Please model this.
Amino acid sequence: METVKGTVNLRWTGARMMLGTDSRGAAIPIGYNREADPPWNAVKPSDLLLLAAASCSAYDVVEILEKQREPLLGLDVQCTGEQITAQPYNFITVHLKYIVKGPVTPQKVERAIQLSEEKYCSVLATLRAGVELSSEYEIIE
Model:
């Protein structure tokens, strides 16, 4: 099996703030700083997991529909995760709702989502082992 390695970096910047940098150099603030004046929040680490799931799948769905020359005008993905209330607060469910904009063919949308969720999205493939995954879609013309 051939593999590819990815490396991200995380730097603690003080209080509960971190700066994450992806393998291509893009940065994202993570955490919170209650001591700052005014206090401020950045992205929660657990929300990053949901964003990773949503964006990984959305990327696939857009690419598949574009290759099929579907008239896709927009795509929003709402990703909801349910976590247990005791440490380590692991996710037990992840639900994706795809809101597809444009006069697209419903069967092609269903197939694009299915292909992403079952074949192409590495994040969902990783989560599948321990998390109940579900999805739905809505088309807005």
